[in-house]
Amino acid sequence: MPQLTVEGFGKFDVPANKRLVLALEQDAHVDVMHACGGNARCTTCRVEFIEGAPSKMTAAEKERLTERGLKGVRLSCQILCDHDMTVRAISRLEGSGRPDPGPTPDTAITPPPEWV
User: Fold this and answer.
1) What total number of domains does the chain contain?
2) Which of 36, 54, 80, 89 has the most CB atoms lying inside 10 A of its own CB?
3) Residue 102 lies in a domain
4) Three-state SS string across the chain, please?
5) Domain membership of residue 85 as a residue range
6) What is the pTM of this model?
7) Residue 96 domain-assigned?
8) pLDDT tens, position by position, 33-76
């Protein structure tokens, strides 16, 4: 069972291959944003990796980050918890001015992942 460490929140054992966005919200109780419902469209689920950044990413994540000129961040909706990782949750509902974090993401990565 992978261990997810979230800066300022603690360490959590999470089910293997759970989407990071869901692990943050459900296991670590972080008010992470996911305005598009975890579909790699909005980039509101951004995190910074402190340790254990995944070596691969989905084509959708790469396209979105490139399109928006974002560097040094990853989209938690496009990452599986398949190893120990330490992250900083930088896109949270608190202070966003939004009424809610967005629709709950599906349990499977969407769109279907094409790993690059």
Assistant:
1) 1
2) 89
3) no
4) CCEEEECCCEEEECCCCEEHHHHHHHHCCCCECCCCCCCCCCCCCEEEEEECCCCCCEHHHHHHHHHHCCCCCEEHHHCEECCCEEEEECCECCCCCCCCCCCCCCCCCCCCCCEC
5) 3-89
6) 0.97
7) no
8) 999 999 999 999 999 999 999 999 999 999 999 999 999 999 99
